[in-house]
Design a protein that fits this description.
Blueprint (H helix, E strand, L loop, with lengths): L7 E5 L3 H14 L4 E6 L15 H8 L4 H8 L2 E3 L1 E5 L7 E5 L12 H11 L10 H7 L14 E3 L2 H12 L5 E4 L2 E6 L6 E6 L4 E3 L2 E4 L16 E3 L8 E7 L9 E6 L2 E7 L4 E7 L6 H11 L11 E2 L3 E3 L3 E2 L2 E3 L5 E2 L7 H14 L8 H27 L7 H8 L4 H13 L12 H10 L10 H4 L2 H20 L4 H10 L1
Parallel strand pairs: 1-2, 1-11, 2-7, 4-14, 11-20
Antiparallel strand pairs: 3-6, 4-5, 8-9, 9-10, 12-18, 13-16, 13-17, 14-15, 15-16, 18-21, 19-20
Helix pairs in contact: 1-6, 1-8, 4-14
The chain binds flavin-adenine dinucleotide.
Amino acid sequence: MDEPKVKRVVVAGGGTAGWIAAYALVKQLAPLIEVTLVESDEIGTVGVGESTIPTCRTFHQYMGIDEREFMRATNSTFKLGISFENWAAEQDRYIHSFGTLGHGTWLADFHHYWLEARRQGWAGEIGDYCFEHQAAAAEKFATSKDATINYAYHLDATSYGQYLRGLAEPLGVRRVEGKIREVRQNAESGDIEALLLQSGETVEGDLFIDCTGFRGLLIEQTLKAGFEDWAEWLPTDSALPVQTESVGAPKPFTRAIAHRAGWRWQIPLQHRVGNGLVFASAFMSEDEARALLAQELEGEPLFEPRLIRFKAGRRRKSWVNNCVAIGLSSGFIEPLESTSIHLIMIAVTRLLQAFPFRGATPAARDRFNEQADREIIGIRDFIVLHYHATERDDSDFWRHCRNMTIPDTLRERIELFRAHAHAYQDSHDLFRVDSWVQVMLGQRQTPASYHHVARLMPEARLREALSSLQANISRAVAGMPTHGEFLQRYMAG
Ligand SMILES: Cc1cc2nc3c(=O)[nH]c(=O)nc-3n(C[C@H](O)[C@H](O)[C@H](O)COP(=O)(O)OP(=O)(O)OC[C@H]3O[C@@H](n4cnc5c(N)ncnc54)[C@H](O)[C@@H]3O)c2cc1C
């Protein structure tokens, strides 16, 4: 085989996206490629992004990351899902867990049988039939060789970048500190040839990964990929993150607590809690948001919250010429279901699988962009569901969300669920049927009917199946340590 044409890879940006990309590229493809990362200490990183989903574990396994070492370095805790509070109605709560709901059949998923049991009047809540859900509700956690538990992490974003840097540099990633002043393109092809830094240094490359965050220095400012704005469906556009001291034992779930113009998060780490208020500036001023956050914080703040403005939407193309945008430069939905780090990891995985050793072809770029589009659209719909399917009527913000026109793709899903309890996961969808069901039910979407096969099951058999499942899960959860106890033991091990 002839020598690869694409050998010098330049990663622009050293936030979570930049260091994930740099580490993965060098770990998997060196010495076929050389990786240089350019980051600016003066600009810094967005500094948030601390809640993940279980795909993070798979990615870490591919990358040979040791769980204990990573958790120690990033003060991580375990996460079993998200507790949604005040979403469907004030004082309401449900958990979207990472678990599987009961056991369905090939004809009908579990929730159809559960709906029949509810009709008969004796079934518990849907979460009673899910191990991760019950464990989260009881604030328990344990991993063991005998039983699987589906989990993710809460991590310290700054330490995570530093940890990955510590893995990447010994493998050969060259880090250049400095501000990119100009991007040099080939006059004919438009391909990027080099980054010119303020120091006068020039960093040349064959393939450029734009991880410069919201500014999209290469993909947008240089290559004009275009941005599709989703503000009509996702009205929040501002966040006030702040860290506080821990109060109490860390919970094995993220809290997403809705307020009158958005929501706030609580992410427990080993050494502190990450908090933040997300709000829609059209419905709440910065001063009001600061006052609300200060009033609701549970621990002592470790610094003054700083305002982050963002735009929900996606880059029209993530891969243009010889530049691939990964991370916030490729789009941002909003952090409600903790999907951004997943999108970084999946984009890096796709890039590794389709690495353009002989130069980027239009077919490779189209395939990459098509996959990225489909996935982010599926996530967008899932997030919009939380805002739109609500009974809240207590503020202009919630009335706007209830009444807004939603994407057709989501409207069809909601109609299907309401009419037939039908939920599905398309091949490009990140979220499984169990996730759609938990959120649909949590947002009080009551199906008018369900698969009649559930009615064919004799009541005694259905009762026996559900009761023993619930009892087995409860027994297992009762025997588990609390999340705090397990964490302490695991970190000491
Ligand atoms: C409020 C909020 C909450 C979030 N919560 C979550 C969450 O819970 N879970 C989750 O998965 N995601 C979350 N995210 C998203 C997550 O923060 C990002 O996906 C992640 O941090 C990756 O960011 P990034 O690396 O793309 O950009 P950044 O962190 O902004 O990094 C950009 C990098 O580019 C460099 N750079 C920029 N311009 C130049 C230049 N001219 N010269 C040199 N270097 C330059 C910067 O110095 C920096 O190193 C959240 C985002 C927000 C806004």
